[in-house]
């Protein structure tokens, strides 16, 4: 199994808080994103692509107060996120073979959830989601794009992801079950 980092997720109480955080922290205003009606969330995006992390972006995400509750747990554990300042919340790894990689996680005794079809505008993807909305501790969520990738459309903001450091020995955890390359340096 080989995966690559797809995007970093910054969760915020409101999308406006997330945009303000991005402007104050990175000195950049994220570009447009959109709404995820099936999850009751909305986002803004910022291109992070670099030679080390191709097709990579930052997603600022929040529960959409205008959307009706989805009737199920939202992705990335957003329903359980305590109120507070925006922060790096999770990350997503891209795969070219969702079924194979899901089975590999299951074979290792993990419960990654089901591959769920999702879309926003003409963007289409499948993403592994657990029914409880939680993420696997220490592991990224897997995504498989079906068509255009958002980073291909995002303007170059002059910001590049060149390394990603984690604490607590996370790199070994990621490399063993996911074979993720270029995820942690």
Q: What does it look like?
A:
The chain has 185 residues and is of the alpha+beta class. The protein has a single domain (4-178), classed as Roll (2,3-Dihydroxybiphenyl 1,2-Dioxygenase, domain 1), CATH 3.10.180. The chain contains 3 helices and 8 strands; from the N terminus they run βαββββαβββα. It has helices at residues 15-26, 98-107, 170-178, and strands at 4-11, 31-36, 41-47, 57-63, 87-94, 114-120, 123-129, 141-145. It has an 8-stranded mixed sheet.
CATH topology: 2,3-Dihydroxybiphenyl 1,2-Dioxygenase, domain 1
Major β-sheet strand ordering: 2-3-4-1-5-8-7-6
Largest β sheet strand count, sense and barrel closure: 8 strands, mixed
What general form does the structure show?
A: globular
The CATH architecture classification is Roll
Report, as a whole number of angstroms, the end-to-end distance: 18 Å
Rg measurement, Å: 16 Å
Count of distinct strands: 8
- Kindly estimate the percentage of residues that lie in beta strands according to DSSP: 25-35%
Oligomeric assembly: single chain
Can you say what the CATH homologous superfamily is? 2,3-Dihydroxybiphenyl 1,2-Dioxygenase, domain 1
Order of helices and strands: EHEEEEHEEEH
Per CATH, the class reads Alpha Beta
The secondary structure category is alpha+beta
The domain count comes to 1
Helix content: 10-25%
Report the average pLDDT across residues: 89
